[in-house]
Design goal:
Blueprint (H helix, E strand, L loop, with lengths): L17 H17 L7 H12 L3 E5 L6 H12 L3 E5 L7 H4 E6 L4 E6 L6 E5 L6 H4 L3 H6 L1 E4 L2 E4 L5 E6 L12 H4 L2 E5 L6 H10 L15 H11 L6 H16 L3 E3 L3 H17 L7 H12 L4 E2 L1 H5 L4 H11 L9
Parallel strand pairs: 1-8, 1-9, 2-5, 5-8
Antiparallel strand pairs: 3-4, 6-7, 10-11
Length: about 325
């Protein structure tokens, strides 16, 4: 995963922009609080906050025990949202996710019993352990932010975020995520092992109790929704938009790619770049924003060709090749 680099050029901080200031303040408060639980993963925490501000779902792909579940719990706690955890298993049915309509003999009417998907932050733990049929129950909720049960549509409550985890190492009893579902995740991030010094800090911090027990709500839901709306006001120059399109088109034409990124990938890169700019205190996007987020927004949407897989070429390597080969737009007056 690419580092979350500081801007390499001198860019003026924006003053007198309350909306951008709100978004930056909300992001910093969330990241700082979650960072008390997820030790030494500043970049990954900020990416998760960035996805939250962008109204995008996040896939956390890593080995067990590195804090994937704890990251989701910490995010829900610091923003005061309703939280639901779904432990995916092979015998799970779609109705176990979305809910079911039951007949009430007293009222002689069907009543909807909401499933765990109806929470504001949903942790889909080990999502690749469910069958494709059950995984498909998430498609409507992730894209349209609603679920339909027995012909009745139920909207989700804002903010709505799915944090899914999967173990890329273990294959027994798992099912690959369908391409349609992978495409609905705005970001794919990895936490990785902590350094020895960070792991020592984790041991000391959890000697008596887990730090998440002392985690408090730091922003209101209204503040978060206001920050999400402010993100949309970030200016994106036409040159930056063309840069995004060039990158996505290059993924479709790369010789090692069987299927390139979809237009949803362009939108994901566009929206997360706006959020990154706001978190940096800018009201405009620069090429560095695009370069920093291309891998986490595009790599999981790229299907590597069979010949490239034999050579052990990954989608992340392909994105890096595309970034190196695609001209970066120069500065221009707004």
């Amino acid at each position: 995963m690419p580092d979350y680099p500081q801007d390499t050029r001198q860019t003026p901080r924006v003053s007198g922009t309350p909306q951008i200031g709100l978004a930056q303040n909300v992001a910093e408060r969330i990241a700082q609080s979650v960072g008390q639980v997820i030790i030494g993963k500043r970049n990954e925490v900020r990416l998760a906050v960035l996805g939250l501000l962008s109204k995008g779902h996040i896939l956390i792909e890593d080995i067990p025990g590195v804090g994937k579940t704890m990251l989701a719990k910490a995010l829900a706690r610091v923003i005061g949202c309703t939280f639901s955890r779904v432990q995916f298993t092979p015998d799970m049915l779609p109705s176990d996710i979305t809910g079911v309509s039951l007949f009430n003999q007293k009222t002689r009417e069907f009543e909807f019993r909401a499933g765990p998907i109806m929470a504001q932050i949903v942790l889909a733990d080990e999502i690749n352990r469910a069958t494709p049929k059950t995984q498909a129950a998430l498609l409507e909720a992730m894209e349209e932010r609603q679920v339909t049960v027995d012909g009745v549509t139920y909207p989700m409550e804002d903010p709505f975020l799915i944090l899914a985890t999967q173990n890329p190492i273990e294959y027994e009893g798992t099912f690959p995520l369908p391409e349609a579902q992978l495409d609905r995740f705005m970001l794919r991030i990895q936490l990785g092992y902590p350094s020895p010094a960070e792991e020592l800090t984790v041991l000391s911090a959890q000697q008596y109790e887990h730090p998440i027990n002392n985690l408090q709500q730091v922003v209101s839901i209204q503040e978060l929704i206001g920050a999400q709306q402010a993100i949309r006001e970030i200016y994106v120059a036409d040159e930056i938009k063309r840069y995004i399109i060039d990158l996505v088109n290059a993924s479709r034409q790369h010789s090692d790619v069987y299927l390139g990124s979809s237009p949803r990938g362009s939108l994901a890169l566009f929206r997360t770049a706006q959020a990154r700019a706001a978190m940096a205190g800018r009201n405009y996007v620069i090429p560095d924003d695009i370069k920093a987020l291309a891998e986490v927004t595009l790599a999981h949407r790229i299907i590597v060709g069979p010949a490239a897989r034999i050579k052990d070429i990954s989608s992340r390597t392909i994105v890096q090749d595309i970034l190196a080969a695609t001209p970066v737009p120069g500065a221009s007056a707004r």
